[in-house]
Amino acid sequence: MRHTIAVLVKDHPGVLTRVASLFNRRGFNIESMAVGHTSEKDISRMTIVVGGDERVLEQIIKQLNKLIDTVRVKDIDPDLSVQRELALIKVKTSSLVIRSEIIQTVDIFRAKVVDVNSKIITIETTGTEDKIDALLELLKPFGIEEVVRTGKIAISRGINTVRLPKN
Amino acid sequence: MKLSGAEIVVKCLEKEGVEVVFGIPGGAIMPLYDAMHRMASFKNILTKHEQGAIHAADGYARVTGKVGICIATSGPGATNLVTGLANAHLDSIPIVAFTGQVSTNLLGTDGFQEVDISGISIPITKNNYIVRDVNELASIIKEAFHIARTGRPGPVLIDLPKDVQFARTDFEYPRKDKFLGYQPSIKGNDKQIKSAAQEILKSKKPVIYAGGGVISSNASVELKELAFKANIPVTTTLMGIGSFPENHLLSLGMLGMHGTYYANSAIQNADLIIALGTRFDDRVTGKLTEFGLKAKIIHIDIDPAEIGKNILVDIPIVGDLKKILQKLNKQVTEKNEKEWLKTIKELKNKYPLTYIKNEELKPQYILEKVYDAVGGDAIIVTSVGQHQMWAAQFFQYTQPRTFVTSGGLGTMGFGLPAAIGAKVGCPKKNIICISGDGSFQMNIQEIATALNNNLPIILILMNNGYLGMVRQWQELFFERRYAKTTLNGNPDFIKLVEAYGGTGIRVTSKKEVMPSLKKALSSKGFILLDCIIPKEENVYPMVAPGGSITEMLGVNGK
């Protein structure tokens, strides 16, 4: 079972180490982690995807809450949220024909070509993990040179928010 | 008026009411030592090793309930604190540790005596800080004290680069600490408390399992009120010893690996286990899947992460034990489960805690005599091993904060420095350190600290020439192959203590015990009783490794 957890943390040096160290020591397996600033000053948001049953999830949330730099922790329900990942993919293009085939695939997925030369085409795509996996699968026969993925980020649908506690 | 960072530390410690610090100076912490030398109103005790300093701060914190302070320099000074931090972390003891650090411009360059102590100590501190700007120093110290002593207490480390100690700024100690995120739950959920009260009233075979949390939240009075009102037998963990008077009829003594058979048996037969400030450690539960199977479990703890960590519980309550017990006690009416109490009484009579009494100088006998000699009024401090378990078993504790021991980490060498801290914290109390010859030699240098500071501590050495607990396991589970547990080359401990300027008495027979103890109790300085005990005496009873807690060896002391 995979879970997506949103964690608001104080933007201190070392906060990433604290979180990573906690996951490592308690044997929780991080599948992906994305970190960035929020609209609040000095507060960062981590989106962590982890594997484990409900009991493991409960321990993870409690242990994260114990870190002094943690401000809020929330388990994001996949059915009630928008989840996205961004990937940049470099694919070999040995001929014009192949390049146009690749571009067709890119169009079907509503991805974007962001860089191109005679040998390589670089594609940007955003979407769910499944969509990115599917695109990669289709591009594989052309020869994927390099892939970089951001890891998942997630936001609840509707009025639910993961923000600073009031006061 | 502007103050230097080092002076600010001194001022902050004074504002926090610090009475004493333990530590050792060195290059990167010199500005702080200089400031303390010039202006500190608190005591500053020099130990002989940084590990001694932090264990002393730990012992001080355990007996007083206040925050213990230790100071070390950067690099090796800081790494020498690591064991002590882990020790305090596992036993939830409030400590603020200060370490020197290379100047901020050298951070990360592998400068002389530079070590990333903040990185090293992440998993063994409640929180830690590197102060990069002198303007943040006062608020960091304020925050550190608050974090160390509130919620589930624990050690906090503050790393002080040398230039920050020299840098000057205006000093103002923040009045209120603002915390985003850190808000320990205190009150406890009223609904849950009500269900707990109902379960207690319904139960026919209740037992209280009390841990170190009872002591750290000062909830002994409330625990007694609950037990007496509803006639519930009480067993304590090693950390909970002293939270309930062991001379009371309802006391079951300690449970777990070397607990009493009747305590373990009560747990296994109970229909309700009331777990207070405790964490279902493996040394307590034995085989987890067979622990307390007949019972519903109420678990009250300040740390939500302990709820459901090792064992699923029926009624969890998160908050301060004292506050919760006060509410709970109002809802629990008097009751008396006569059948259950009769069973308990029979178990206690049938399987008493005992040992083979003969002419030999048994450690258990020594502890009984220690109890007699002080009339039960002493603080017992131990190191780790067989002597620790005997001290837990054969001295009757009746007051909280009178048994000081390294529980979670099991740190050999804890005893002597912790006894120093205990004596500094409670100068009027008899401080008796029980140690083995293995443990003693892991911080033996602190004899000098005790003597330099005129601290009359009695150290009772259970000298069997072995790393006794390991030897016991080798005897029982490794076919008596005594791999490196024989302590060949032990010094003459009497001469050693005398070389430091202290007194030592060798005790080799039962008849020498009482006179030696009397002499020790009237001694004005550090005194060692080197007790030569039978070499292969074992700690019994004992839960066999991997077994459930009623599968015990040596139930009748043999």
By CATH, the topology of the largest domain in chain B is Rossmann fold
Spell out the CATH superfamily of the largest domain in chain A. Answer: ACT domain
Termini separation of chain A comes to: 35 Å
Q: Please describe the biggest sheet of chain A, giving its number of strands, its sense, and whether it closes into a barrel.
A: 5 strands, antiparallel
Structural class of chain A: alpha+beta
Strand runs of chain B, count: 22
Helix content of chain B: 25-40%
Which architecture of the largest domain in chain B does the CATH hierarchy give at level 2?
Answer: 3-Layer(aba) Sandwich
CATH superfamily (homologous) name of the largest domain in chain B: Thiamin diphosphate (ThDP)-binding fold, Pyr/PP domains
Looking across the biggest beta sheet of chain B, what order are the strands in?
Answer: 3-2-4-5-7-6
Into which percent range does the helicity of residues of chain A fall? 25-40%
What overall geometry of chain B do the principal axes of the alpha carbons give?
globular
